[in-house]
């Protein structure tokens, strides 16, 4: 194998993985082309040659130096064929795709339908890759959200208010559950579990009667909007309620040490698997050991065990 390409999505720790891919490839004299704007760039043939120097100083940077963009056209057969044409035209012998469910689904399509050698690296703050304990970016996202929550709690207690804090999590409550537990919050709403809003409001009102001056509800964006939950609380309790939507600040920022180390190990391992003839696999870390599973399995919906976290949050309220 003489030439490969790398595609990336954006979350903290991705650049550490990219750096590991490039520098491991350099060890074997494999040329690495970075794909600008992920699948759009792959279809349009937008590449940049990468070497040890081009990835110098990026390990602590959030996002991705290659930039990224959602590109619906790649989901079509014509789009996929154009991407394959560019791969073949430019003599690219394999791909490493660093990203979340959508990116890895594209990787699986290229490998299974068109025979392109591909290895996936899980990188998503939602940590919703099936069969994977921890994706790159998830640890940093939780830390960023908890740091913001600590500041919100100061205001909530000082001004004796209820806050509904919306965090990311379209289909998965990973961030919400961990932020709620780490932040000492009173309630959490996630896509995987139905919580009785009337009962929650009764608990808030009862707590207020007993002298509890603040209350924080964490809600995953895929479960509900913070504004809607706050309005219900106001109507049913008559108490002053505010919202905070953390939004995309969770996707950026300097990666935690854990995400840098995870990115370095998975990027290195992905390159090793690719050069050894493996394909259609997703790499991950399990009990401190590097492993891989089929991409077909990795892109299936992930189910997380919500109950133990939720139960502990309520016990500690």
What would your notes on this structure say?
It is a single chain. With 317 residues, the chain is of the alpha/beta class. The chain folds into 2 domains: 3-137 and 255-298, Rossmann fold, CATH 3.40.50; 141-251, Phosphofructokinase domain (Rossmann fold, 3-Layer(aba) Sandwich). It has helices at residues 14-27, 38-44, 77-89, 101-114, 138-159, 174-182, 197-209, 226-237, 257-275, 295-298, 307-315; strands spanning 3-8, 31-35, 47-50, 95-99, 118-122, 162-167, 187-189, 215-220, 241-245, 281-286, 289-294. The strands form 2 sheets. It has a 7-stranded mixed beta sheet, with helices on both faces. Strands 7-8-6-9 form a 4-stranded parallel beta sheet, sandwiched between helices. Strand 4 (95-99), helix 4 and strand 5 form a beta-alpha-beta unit. The longest helix is centred in the middle third of the chain and has 22 residues, at 138-159. It is elongated and about 70 Å long.
Q: Please mark out the parts with pLDDT under 50 across 5 or more consecutive residues, or reply none.
A: none
The CATH architecture of the largest domain can be named as 3-Layer(aba) Sandwich
Strand line-up in the sheet with most strands? 3-2-1-4-5-10-11
Structural class comes to alpha/beta
Broad CATH class of the largest domain: Alpha Beta
Give a short overview.
The protein is an alpha/beta fold and 317 residues long.
SSE blueprint:
Elements lengths: L2 E6 L5 H14 L3 E5 L2 H7 L2 E4 L26 H13 L5 E5 L1 H14 L3 E5 L15 H22 L2 E6 L6 H9 L4 E3 L7 H13 L5 E6 L5 H12 L3 E5 L11 H19 L5 E6 L2 E6 H4 L8 H9 L2
Parallel strand pairs: 1-2, 1-4, 4-5, 5-10, 6-8, 6-9, 7-8
Antiparallel strand pairs: 2-3, 10-11
Helix pairs in contact: 1-9, 2-3, 5-6, 6-11, 7-8
């Amino acid at each position: 194998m003489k030439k490969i390409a790398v595609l990336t999505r954006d979350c903290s720790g991705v650049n550490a993985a990219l750096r590991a891919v490039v520098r491991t490839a350099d060890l074997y004299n494999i040329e690495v082309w970075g794909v600008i704007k992920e699948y759009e760039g792959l279809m349009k043939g937008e590449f940049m040659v990468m070497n040890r120097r081009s990835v110098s100083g990026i390990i602590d940077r959030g996002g991705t130096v290659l930039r990224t963009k959602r590109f619906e056209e790649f989901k079509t057969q014509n789009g996929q064929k154009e991407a394959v044409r560019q791969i073949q035209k430019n003599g690219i012998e394999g791909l490493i795709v660093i990203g979340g469910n959508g990116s890895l689904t594209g990787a699986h399509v290229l490998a299974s339908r068109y025979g392109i050698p591909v290895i996936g690296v899980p990188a998503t703050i939602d940590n919703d890759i099936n069969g994977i304990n921890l994706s790159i970016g998830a640890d940093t996202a939780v830390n960023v959200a908890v740091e913001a929550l600590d500041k919100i709690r100061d205001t909530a207690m000082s001004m004796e208010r209820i806050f509904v804090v919306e965090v990311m999590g379209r289909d998965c409550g990973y961030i919400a559950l961990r932020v709620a537990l780490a932040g000492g919050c009173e309630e959490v709403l996630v896509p995987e579990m139905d919580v009785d809003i009337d009962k929650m409001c009764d608990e808030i009102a009862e707590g207020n009667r007993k002298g509890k001056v603040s209350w924080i509800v964490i809600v995953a964006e895929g479960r509900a909007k913070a504004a809607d939950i706050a309005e219900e609380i106001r109507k049913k309790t008559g108490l002053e309620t505010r919202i905070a939507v953390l939004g995309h600040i969770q996707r950026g920022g300097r990666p935690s040490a854990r995400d840098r180390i995870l990115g370095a190990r998975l990027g290195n391992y992905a390159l090793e698997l690719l050069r050894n003839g493996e394909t259609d696999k997703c790499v991950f870390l399990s009990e401190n050991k590097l492993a891989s599973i089929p991409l077909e399995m990795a892109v299936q919906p992930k189910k997380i065990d919500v109950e133990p976290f939720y139960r502990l949050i309520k016990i500690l309220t």
